[in-house]
Amino acid sequence: MRATGDLRNLTIDARLALAGGGNLDARGTVDLASKDKGYDLNAQLRVFNAKSVVAKAPATSLTATAFARGRGIDPATMQAAFGANLATSTIDTVAIDSALVRVSTARGMLHVDTATVSGPHTVLALGGTFGLATGHSGELRYTAFVDSLGAVNRFFPAADTGVVVPRPRGYARVAAQARADSAAVARATEIERLATGAAAPRLGPIPAPPASIRRDSTAGTIRAGGVVRGGIKGFDVRGRAGLQDVVFRGNTLRRGRFGPGLRRQRSAAVDDRGAVPAAAGTGGGDRPDRQRGNRRRRSRS
C-alpha cells in the first residue's frame, strides 16, 4: 500500500492480497485536512471474503468494482456519488448473479438512480429518493419477483419431512359435481335413447384425487411492488403482492393477492392503532375459499 502527497491531496494506491483469500485493490485521492472530508476512490474486489477483514462479518465471495466520489460524511450535508457493479458472488449462503447500483446524496436526500440485484430465480429493483435528515422525505419504488419459491426453501428449514394428505371435502365436491354432470346428460338424452334403443351414457371421467404433499416442500411464484415514503426518521411502506401455485409446509395456495401497509417509526413497525398489520387476501365470488385467496389448507395425516 502506498500513500503520497499531503493530507489535503493524499494519493492512495493499495493492492492487498488477503489471508482468507481474494484481492482488494483501491486507488484514488482523499482530502483529510478539510472540515468536509473529500474522496475520489475506485476499488476492485476479486473473490473478496469480508470475514478475513472483519471477524464478525459473514463469509463472502465478492467480485465487484465500486467507486465513491464526493465530499462530507454526514448524511444530512454530504454531496457524493456511489456506484457498484457486482458479478457472480455469494454473501453467506445467498448467491448473487449480478448487481448494479448507482446512488447519490445531496441536501439531505438519497437519490437512487439504479439499484437492481438478480440471483437464482430472483430479481429485485429499487429507484427513487429517500430522506437522510430530519425534515427530508422521499419516495422509493420497489419491485421483486421470485419465479420459484423452492429456490429460497433453505431459508425455511423444516424438521418434519412427513406428508400431509388432502382433506376429503374438496375432492368429494369435485367428484360429486362430475357425477351430477353425467346424470344431467343421461336425463337430457333419456327420451332419445328410449326411441332409438341407444345405450345409456357412461359416467364421465372423475379427476384423480390430489396427491399428498411433503411438509418440507416449497414451490410457487411471487411478485411484489410498492412504494416507501419518508426518510430515516420515519417512513411508510405501501405495496401489493401476488402469489400463484404456492406450496408451503403442506398447504397450497392457487392464487392470492395481498395489499399490506406498514408504518415504521425508527425501529418499530406498527400501524396507526399500534398493531402490526396482517396481509389480507382478496378474491371474488361467493365461495369462502375464494374469499380467502383460493387457499387450500390440508389437514395433518
Model description:
The chain has 301 residues and is mainly beta. The protein folds into two domains: 1-106; 140-194 and 212-224 and 235-301, no CATH class. 11% of the residues lie in helices and 49% in strands. It contains three helices and 20 strands. It is elongated, with a radius of gyration of 29 Å. The relative contact order is 0.09.
**Poorly predicted ranges (pLDDT <50, ≥5 residues)?**
263-301
Q: Into how many domains do the coordinates divide?
A: 2
Quick check: average pLDDT?
81
The tally of beta strands, per DSSP, is 20
Largest sheet: 18 strands, antiparallel
Order of helices and strands: EEEEEEEEEEEEEHHEEEEEEHE
What are its keywords?
mainly beta; 2 domains; 18-stranded antiparallel β-sheet; 3 helices; elongated
